[in-house]
Amino acid sequence: MNLESPKVPIEKSAQELFDLLSDVRNFEKLMPDNIAKFELIGDDAFIFGLKGMPEIKLKMKEKTAPNKIILGAASDKLPFTLVANINAISEQSSDVKLDFEGDFNPMMAMMIKGPIGKFIETLAVNMTKL
Fold it and tell me: From which domain of life does this come (predicted)?
């Protein structure tokens, strides 16, 4: 299952946005209003929970400065990645698009497609708050 957020323009350089997203603590600022839990579990991982959804543990998997950050599920039960693609527009601005890729059975994919789509869209839109 592949989902994409819309491209969101950010008034920060690609490197500045990359640096902000490289620090997993900043993901708390990106979470939607209905967040039930956010807990750091190291320098490169966190657990978050949304109301009505199971808690998810995300871990920093790969960083390619200043264009790409890959977060992945720390559990094999829900195998997925969340990729932040950062594109420089000028020295002071960039845009970002989030790509979600998961390997789920058709029933699970049908159940989570709507909530996950809304979630990644909210994360992308909230990047203007960083």
Answer: Bacteria
